[in-house]
């Protein structure tokens, strides 16, 4: 469940790197089980231990900084209110807030795509 969504998000981030006309903002709406699936695909536990608050959000941002450094991904979590925390993905990104895009890519490519999953 989460791997399919993660592949879609990764494809759009990769397109942003190579296609100047690629979209700059994408919004996905999901129920809590889908968000939990996305956390599972990222090898992370969801930060909240109870039922989710209204307007909870998982935010994935693709960044390229001035100076041509390697692009990176930020993972942020909003638990209903105004507070947004930046997550570190231990196994995926080595406990860094800024996950190098190549590390994120390596992780996503370990998961089967929707087509591969259907053929298994």
Features of this protein?
single chain; 18% strand; alpha+beta; 120 residues
Structure description:
InterPro entries: His_PPase_superfam. The longest helix is centred in the first third of the chain and has 17 residues, at 2-18. A hairpin with an 8-residue loop joins strand 1 and strand 2 (72-79). The chain has five helices and four strands. Strands 1, 2, 3 and 4 form a four-stranded antiparallel β-sheet that branches. The model has no long low-confidence stretch (mean pLDDT 83). The chain is of the alpha+beta class. It has helices at 2-18, 32-41, 90-93, 101-109, 114-119, and strands at 56-63, 72-79, 84-87, 99-100. The chain has one domain. It is globular and about 40 Å long.
DSSP helical segment count = 5
Q: Unreliable stretches, pLDDT < 50, 5 or more residues? A: none
The H-and-E topology, N to C, reads as: HHEEEHEHH
Number of strands: 4
Helix content: 25-40%
Shape label: globular
Describe the sheet with the most strands.
4 strands, antiparallel
Strand fraction band? 15-25%
Structural class: alpha+beta
First and last CA, distance: 15 Å
> Mean pLDDT score, rounded?
83
| Radius of gyration, in angstroms, nearest whole number | 15 Å
User: How many domains make up the coordinates?
Assistant: 1
């Amino acid at each position: 469940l989460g791997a399919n969504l993660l592949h879609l998000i990764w494809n759009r981030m990769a397109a942003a790197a190579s296609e100047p006309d690629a979209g700059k903002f994408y919004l996905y709406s999901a129920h809590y089980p889908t968000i939990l699936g996305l956390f599972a695909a990222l090898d992370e536990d969801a930060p909240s231990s109870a039922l989710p608050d209204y307007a909870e959000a998982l935010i994935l941002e693709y960044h390229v900084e001035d100076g041509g450094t390697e692009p990176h991904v930020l993972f942020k979590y909003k638990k209903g209110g105004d507070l947004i925390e930046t997550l570190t993905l231990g196994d995926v990104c080595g406990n860094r807030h800024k996950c190098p895009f190549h590390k994120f890519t390596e992780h996503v490519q370990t998961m089967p795509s929707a087509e591969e999953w259907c053929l298994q």
